[in-house]
Design a protein that fits this description.
The chain is an all-alpha fold and about 70 residues long. The protein is about 85% helix and about 0% strand. The chain contains three helices and no strands.
């Protein structure tokens, strides 16, 4: 494969990644990552709200595992 062909293929795969909508499993993964990001930066979050986010994370994780297996 010539270098130009490789670059074209790589560019197409990158473009396809951005143009293709994420799957449900991917979207749930993004959501889990966002919850973890919030937990990292939310310094003044009450223990109750922190626990709510953790419960949400675990529920989303269960849904993601179920969808991944099916």
């Amino acid at each position: 494969m010539k270098n130009n062909e490789f670059e074209t293929q790589n560019n197409w795969e990158s473009l396809e990644f951005y143009l293709s909508p994420p799957t449900l499993v991917e979207m749930l993964g993004y959501l889990k990552n966002n919850i973890l990001d919030v937990l990292e930066v939310a310094e003044n979050l009450s223990v109750e709200h922190r626990n709510m986010l953790l419960r949400a994370y675990h529920l989303i994780d269960e849904v993601q595992e179920h969808e991944f297996e099916n």
